Amino acid sequence: MRWFRPLAIMALCVSVAACSTSPTGRSQLLLLSDDELNNMGSQAFNQYQQELPSAGPASQRYAQCIADAIVAVLPQEQQRLDWQIRVFEAEEPNAFALPGGYMGLHTGMLDIATNQDQVASVVAHEIGHVLAKHSNERASTQSATQLGLSVISSASGLEGAGGEQLMGVLGMGAQYGIMLPFSRRHESEADTIGLNLMARAGFDPRESVSLWQNMQQASGGGAPPAWMSTHPSQGQRIEGLQAGMSNAMATFEQARNSGRTPNCPRP
């Protein structure tokens, strides 16, 4: 497999030049600047607001109250991001986060998240994506993967139908062997970060499990196999949250004893 050598050399050079560490201590490949990503996040957020109608003022205040309580426990340098959250009228139980601190919730998610603590678990999860710079990491990994496949093709002299077929197999290998597991790793990491954040803000971390139990009931099955999904299965997420619950509960008790008792009226 002589043609794997250029990919290994390229990956080593890139990782040495742009290696970073996530909030959980995991090594990351970050090729883009924060300013570049934050600008892209702002543009995408503006476009999203143009394409979907906003929910009513009561829903906006509800989400903002929860987000403010979580952002308030972040270090000062992280609070300087342009944290914004909007609720959009959409049936899908979805939420998203963009570089720069821009977040969105669908009203369908508010239907499933039945109290402020469950909504807080969603918001804290999305904030976790931003803090861990997952968008940068995904974009960087995709760029490096595409570059690596191009290097392999050139170095191997792969041309014609046979070469295209092999490159197709390699592309599928890259998709299912690198990109999708990477996304699942991001989701699990954001769950870990979010669980701690919501507890520090005084939201009950046990409600994060309740949220995913609600999601299980609402989905009624039909999810793709875990190894082909960009997200862990709902059962896997519950297991991961439960694994960190003891520490989260200790943090929650400390937050409550310190007077952090958020009260965000549900619309």
Structure description:
The protein is mainly alpha-helical. It is 65% helix and 7% strand. It has eleven helices and five strands. A three-stranded mixed β-sheet has the order 3-5-4. It has a two-stranded antiparallel ribbon with strand order 1-2. Helix 6 (116-131) packs across helix 9 and helix 8 packs parallel to helix 11 (245-257). The chain is globular and about 40 Å long. Mean pLDDT is 80; it is low at 1-17, 148-159 and 162-176.
Strand and helix map with partners:
Blueprint: H1 5-17, E1 19-21, E2 27-29, H2 34-51, H3 57-71, H4 76-79, E3 84-88, E4 95-98, E5 102-106, H5 107-112, H6 116-131, H7 134-156, H8 160-200, H9 206-219, H10 234-243, H11 245-257
Parallel strand pairs: 3-5
Antiparallel strand pairs: 1-2, 4-5
Helix pairs in contact: 1-7, 3-6, 6-8, 6-9, 7-8, 8-11, 9-10
In short:
The chain is mainly alpha-helical.
Keywords:
two-stranded antiparallel ribbon, 267 residues, mainly alpha, single chain
Q: Roughly what fraction of the amino acids lie in strands? A: 5-15%
The succession of helices and strands, N to C, reads HEEHHHEEEHHHHHHH
Residue windows where pLDDT falls under 50 for at least 5 positions = 1-17, 148-159, 162-176
Question: What is the CA–CA distance across the termini?
Answer: 60 Å
Helix residue percentage: 55-70%
By DSSP, the count of extended strands is: 5
- Estimate the global geometry from the Cα principal axes: globular
Largest pleated sheet? 3 strands, mixed
Number of helices: 11
Instruction: Indicate the radius of gyration in whole angstroms.
Output: 20 Å
Largest beta sheet: strand ordering: 3-5-4
Helix/strand structural class: mainly alpha
What do the pLDDT scores average to?
Answer: 80
